[in-house]
Amino acid sequence: MKTLALSILFLGGMLFSSIRLNAQKPETLTTESFTVSGNCEMCKAKIEKAAKAGGATKAVWNPDNKILVVSYNKEKLNIDAIHQSIAKVGYDTDKIKATDKKYKALPTCCQYDRTTDVTSKTVKKN
Questions:
Q1: Domains, the chain, ranges and CATH?
Q2: What is the DSSP string of 24-46?
Q3: What pTM did the predictor assign?
Q4: Residue 62 has what DSSP assignment?
Q5: d(CA 37, CA 29)
Q6: Each residue's pLDDT tens digit, 74-126
Q7: How far apart are CA 69 and CA 41, in angstroms?
Q8: pLDDT per position as a tens digit, 1-27
Q9: How far from 30 is each of 27, 58, 64, CA to CA, in Å?
Q10: How remote is the C-alpha of 41 from its chain's centroid?
């Protein structure tokens, strides 16, 4: 009987802890959009993956209008980190330009027209 009472008390404590953790304030997400150069569905996959690696919780790039829509926690992340992450894989954003080396490493189908300058900054090398 003592074991049963202790088990119920233990399970009740676990349940209470779980409810308390779930009741904490959810992350405040901010949604922004910006231009990212690219051409194809392969670009789409790489751009979205890079945005998420840079801290976005959601990223959707439209190859027709070149607009990337990202959601991220503004309290924990600066949007520049997402731009930086995308530029590091070879794609120019409207804030940061990828290095020529990263751009030239893209597959031929992904090498977009760079004659129209999207930005004047170049990504920092790591």
A1: 29-110 (3.30.70.100)
A2: SPPP-EEEEEEEB---SHHHHHH
A3: 0.73
A4: E
A5: 25
A6: 999 999 999 999 999 999 999 999 999 999 999 999 999 998 655 544 444 44
A7: 16
A8: 566 555 555 555 554 555 554 544 566
A9: 10, 10, 24
A10: 17
